[in-house]
Design goal:
- The longest helix is centred in the middle third of the chain and has 31 residues.
- β2 and β3 form a beta hairpin.
- A two-stranded parallel sheet has the order 1-4.
- It starts with a helix and ends with a strand.
- The protein has one domain: Up-down Bundle (Four Helix Bundle (Hemerythrin (Met), subunit A)), CATH 1.20.120.80.
- The radius of gyration is 19 Å and the shape is elongated.
- It has 178 residues and is mainly α.
Length: 178
């Protein structure tokens, strides 16, 4: 909500993301999370059938999807940081600083702060989910169906949040001219 308000109230909100690699990367990250939601559904279904071996298999597949998302997101962050985007402004003399000074001279310096805060917080929750899922998978012989179901609810919530972050942060900030 806060991001949407800040963005809507700015006359010159930057659109710094080129279609490739940023949008391509973020689309692949989205597919990783959507796939991991499907594998989590399979884990919950296997748990309802009391098939512990399949529960563990599907949870590990979900973990792979979550870890893939995290690795891709860290690569994306590194690329943006190397280009000069920072949480509190732009690196002097960087690609972003030169382009922004020319294209968006009145743009607020909040883009980096909001981008890194929102995506960083989401990455933290994905990492927390991966750790929680690993704990559930490793203790599956002691777990009840409700434990798998609760971990699935958390995972789906984290995925759902990304379905809002992706269009708000990435798609609305794409520069189709690049």
């Amino acid at each position: 909500m806060g991001y949407s308000y800040v963005r809507a109230s700015s006359d010159q909100w930057p659109t710094p993301f080129p279609f490739s690699p940023s949008i391509v990367f973020s689309t692949v990250m989205t597919l990783c999370l959507l796939s991991s939601s499907l594998t989590m559904v399979m884990a919950v279904a296997a748990s309802a059938r009391k098939d512990r071996r399949k529960v563990r298999l599907w949870i590990f597949a979900t973990i792979v999807g979550g870890l893939s998302f995290l690795v891709l997101h860290m690569i994306e962050w590194k690329h943006l940081i190397d280009d000069g985007l920072r949480p509190f402004g732009l690196k002097e003399g960087s690609h972003f600083a030169e382009e922004w000074g020319h294209r968006w001279p009145q743009a607020p310096p909040l883009f980096g702060a909001t981008f890194f805060a929102i995506t960083g917080l989401h990455m933290f929750h994905v990492l927390t989910g991966v750790i929680y899922l690993a704990w559930v998978a490793l203790r599956i012989h002691r777990m009840r169906h409700e434990d798998v179901e609760i971990s699935g609810l958390y995972w789906h919530f984290v995925d759902l949040v990304w379905m809002f972050v992706f269009p708000l942060i990435y798609l609305m900030s794409v520069d189709m001219g690049h």
